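Quick entry between incubations.
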Amino acid sequence: MAPDVTGLEDIPTAVDADFHVTERQEDFIEYIEDPFHTMLFGGSGPQDNLGYTASFYPSAGLFVSGVATGKIQNPTVRTNEAVREGMAFLGMDAVHVDPTLNLYLGMVHHDELAAALANAYNAWVLDEIYDPDAGIYGPVTVAPQRPTRAAEEIDDRRDERAITSVYIPSGGIHPPLGNERYDPIYDAASRAGLPITLHSASGSQMTHFPLQYHGTNRYLSNHAPTHAMIHMMHLTDMITRGFPVRFPDLDVVFQESGLGWVPYMMRRLDNEYAEKRDDAPMLEQMPSEYVHDQFYFTSQPTEGLKDPEYITSTVNLLGPGNLMFSSDYPHLDFDHSDDLLRALRGSLDDDDLVAIYGGTATQVFDL
Amino acid sequence: MTEGDPPAGPHPGSDDGAGAVSGGEGETETECESEPETKRDNKAKTETESESETETATVTETETATDPTARPDGSWHPVADREAFDSTSRVLVDIDGLEVAVFRIDGEYHALANHCVHQGGPLCSWAVSTVLTADEELRLALDPDRRAVSCPWHGWEFDIETGEHLAPSGHRVPTYDVTVEGDRVYVRR
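Done. Structure below.
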């Protein structure tokens, strides 16, 4: 029986399902293993890199106005202590810590380097950031460029208590994530009993999706549609190619895409599947039923918080059991902890509020 | 025209049903006094196994209504002479305002409402096809034992035997028992 929920203090275990470190390449590059360690550090020392190798992560060159102009105070979160400060700020008992720079890992050009960078980043967060005794958990991050190497990474990290998911950078990758080439990752995640987390980055759309990126010459026109669009694409591709049939016990968490697209796509997929069954004859349930069974969504950036009718009906149409509160702290569009709770309080059952604010994340991430 | 091909015309009951069968013709009182004996769930095996072409024949309510003996118990309605299915695989019959399609596929009869539960399209006026499935490795395969009708409006497909929507939406179109008594095919509604 849930307690009477009037505020965050009434949530038994408040969990943020999408909290970030703001790592730089220099934080974890020392962890990179051979041959890349020797290749990068074993020579006669860095020469003029001509600006090409300062970061192996492609930058879209977005002019993020609030950040570029200093109008937004972006906390730097590159230490365990900084994570704890963020947790206190948000009033969270536990956090699922995602990367920032490594949101772009799927765009790293050299596929073996991408796998090595994932390995180095995982080593760094396990050494310096993750801290399950303090409620600081996170994913094992993998490079989708090398699915078999990603599977090895999962196998190697799966027994770490701090590891709560397998993170696939979902932006800037091709083909979409329903493709069978990713099955080694899904097989390894299934063996490990870990859910898949998918998180895009607005600047990561430039290489593959959508081509209209080049026509969007402002951050707003890029950021507002792309998070939801890329996840619409992945969700549709995964269902159409039978991911729920191939991996019926593997949960998937879509992060940072807002809410409204989810009930929209659930119904749009049902509507289209009703007349296009030949494109996915392996499905044994309607697409929305698969979404309900094994796909989850984090709340930030929650749109329509000031519109009680919109937010309540959207959460109910999505399914309160499939929604996890997330802050996206410390990124520039983070949601503070109480806003969604205040918007839903009085219209959702306390059990649903407890589930959204930690119960579902505790179960899916096995915290 | 082979099975799965569309009928010659876009609408049931139009002139494409060359050779349309008059349901009342040839009926006798004796033949219809009692309920036909060979009833199965919306299908009945025939002695004639030859597959007929997918063309549509129609029977109008007016024609059947003129022969009161055509409804021995108020629920069985004559569809056509069995021979009619030698030249067509489906016959459409209007029963109290509801158009019912009777198919003979691989020697078995099936009857469904010619009304799509989606948006009311003429469900049974178009293609009959083999059902596409996926094998254990999710490779596409055809199920030779299943047939489906697909609505020409939006492509919703329904199992011709059970009336179930192939996409597992829970929707179903009504199906009706069919039987053959003597040389006549009857549908029960």
